[in-house]
What does this fold into?
Amino acid sequence: MKLFYEHFKKDHLLSGIDARIKLIVAIVLLLLVLSYKGFSFPLIVSVLGFGLCLGMKIPLKVFAVRFSEPFFIVVVLVALKCFFSGSDVMFSFNLLGLDIMGHKDGLIDGLMIACRIAGAVSIAAVLGFSTPFTGLMAGLSWLRVPKDFIEVLMFAYRYIFVLLEDAMVIYNAQKNRLGYSSVRRGLSSFGTLAGSLTLKAFENSQNTTLAMVQRGYNGDMPLLKHQPFKSCEVACSLVFIIFMGALWTI
It folds into this structure.
């Protein structure tokens, strides 16, 4: 459960930069990565993002957990593009009476999309590891993101940890009672765990709504007050964006 906490965030160069500037730079980089037709620029962004994460001393276990799901998506996507898309046959084999062919152009397209995903995920990782959640929400509010969306995000972030703690309590109780000693019992225990968490989620939502209404909540959630932009941060961010834009044109 500690993997989901922010205890691994240390004081570093990026932590002192205004969240609004980091959001703007991240959005610009995402647009550049997603619009690039090739491999080089997304790979450069991926390496840069990985280097920044190492510079922030992010534990490799946390890094692996954060990138495990995108990596799985990338593997499936490359396989689908290779075997089910394209016309230039690279290899073929027979499996259980089915002729399976790998296409070179499909593989290239899949790898290109995989590089974009890796670049985009590295940008999101650097932004998430270097900025507190409240700072991100305040930055999104400054960017005129709808208030209802920010409110949902803040409540979801708050109660993810509550449900996670409940899930760990139920899981440990089931495990101590040999609830996962076999596949059949494991599936049954997992179903009970999922059902209990669903009921707890509804119960927590009703209790939270009632408590906030009784305390005069009217939909206006106060966020952090922004300080004026620092000229040095703005100048450095502009230079960085121009530099990355020059790399994008190559």
Notes: Residues 147-214 form one domain. The helical segments are 19-35, 40-55, 60-84, 104-130, 133-142, 147-176, 183-214, 231-249. Residues 183-214 form the longest helix (32 residues). The longest strand covers residues 89-95.
